[in-house]
Amino acid sequence: MDGIHDLGGMHGFGPVPIKEEDVAFKWHCQRRAFALVQALAGPTPYVADMHRQKIEQLPAVDYLRWDYFDKWLYATEELMKDAGLVSEDELREGKMQFSVDLDAHPPSRPEALVDAMKTGQDMRFPPADYPAGFIVGQTVRVRANCPQGHTRVPRYVRGRLGKITKDEGVFQFADTVAAGQGPHPQHCYNVAFSAKALWGENAENPGDYVYLDLAEAYLEHI
Questions:
Q1: CB-hemisphere CA count at 13 Å for 127?
Q2: Which residue numbers delimit the Nitrile hydratase beta subunit domain (predicted)?
C-alpha cells in the first residue's frame, strides 16, 4: 500500500536520529501496550503482516501524530473487532457486552509468550519444493506497481535495477498473508542497489549501496 507510512527515501523528513534512550520504553503505558499486543496475537489470532496492514490504513494525520504504540493498540483493536472478539462500544466504554468462546480463542499463557520470544520460529519452507526464478549475481528490476494492500517493497526501489547478492531461502509472502489469502511460499533475495541508481547524481554518497530483502513476486527479469 502506498501511504504516509512509507517514509523511506522521501524528501522533507530529514535524517532519522538514533539515541540510546529511544531503544527502551519511555513510558509504562508503552510497556503495557507491547504486552497486550503480544498476548492478544494468539487468541485473536493475527500475524505481524496483518497487524502492519491495519496500521498502514490509518489516516496520514493520525499516523504522523500518534505514538508508535498508539498505532499498535489501534491495529490490535481493529483485528479484534474483525475476529468478533470485541465491539466498538466495548472498547469505548470499557464494559463487556457479550461473552467469547474461550475454547475457540484460548488465552495466551505468559510463560508460552516468553518462550516464543526467546526461541522464535523457523518460517522457512523447503527450497527444493519451490524452484527459484532468479540466481545470485543476476541483475533484476523491481516491479513498478502500486499495490492496494500491504507490501514490503518501498517505493524508492520500484522500477529500479539491482543485483541479487544472496538467495535467503523460501518464506511466506507478506502481501498475501496480510490479506488473509494464504502463505504463497516463494524465494526471498537480498538485492543490492547503488545509491546512484536510486537517487541519481544527487545521492549524498553515489558510491554507497542499499541492500534489501525482496520476495520473488516483487522482481522481474530485464
A1: 9
A2: 128-220
